Amino acid sequence: MGGKYSSGRTLSLGELRKLEDVAKKELTAADQPAKRNVFLSFVNEDLTDVNLLRGQAKNEDSELEFNDYSVKEPFDSKDADYIKRGIRDRIDQASVTVVFVTEHTAQSRWVEWEIRESLKLGKGVIAMYKGKTPPRTLPPAIKEHGIKLVAWNHKAISAAIDSAARKRNPSQ
Predict the structure, then answer these.
(1) Do the Cβ atoms of 116 and 144 come closer than 8 Å?
(2) What letter would DSSP give residue 153?
(3) What residues does 148 pair with on adjacent strands?
């Protein structure tokens, strides 16, 4: 009993079982949605909450999974064009931009620019909020483009990220 390689060597039952286990793991992994590359857009006042979200996405027991392509350290420059190039590169590597909205977000020209730039680059965009209701004042681009608002709930955020990525790239 056993399969054969092209060299004619017969596999042992143990080797066949190991190959079967590898194949099962690969098939199971193929059934799982791929981790999405996400750019997080937020104001500095909300960094603590954003870092909590980042940590939750790294937790193996969490339903929320994504690769974080957002800016971790502010650019050490006052040159807006330089900063925009750096942010644009990060957005371009992501499939979805997640905008964390709070009462501070609407005043940020950078968050507004990141939303518009994400849309211009063909990225999916969602907005998430913490608490029972979204803030009353939102960045204008969220309203103008009908961007989906999602409460801070791992299942809901994951589903919204996946949906936004698929809308922008239906082959995924």
Answers:
(1) no
(2) -
(3) 126
Question: How many angstroms separate the CA atoms of 53 and 133, rounded?
Answer: 18
Query: Using CA atoms, how far apart are residues 30 and 170, in angstroms rounded to an integer?
Result: 17
Q: Where are the domains of the chain?
A: 1-32, 34-168
CA atoms of 94 and 165, how far apart (whole Å): 9
Contact partners, residue 82, CB within 8 Å, separation at least 6 = 75
User: Average pLDDT in the 138-161 region?
Assistant: 94
Fold of 34-168: Rossmann fold (3.40.50)
CA–centroid distance for 41 within its chain: 11
What gap in Å lies between CA 80 and CA 76, rounded to an integer?
11
**Percent of the chain clearing pLDDT 90 (strictly above):** 56
Q: What values do phi and psi take at 136, rounded to 5?
A: -70, -35
Angle between helices 80-93 and 109-120 (to 10 degrees): 50
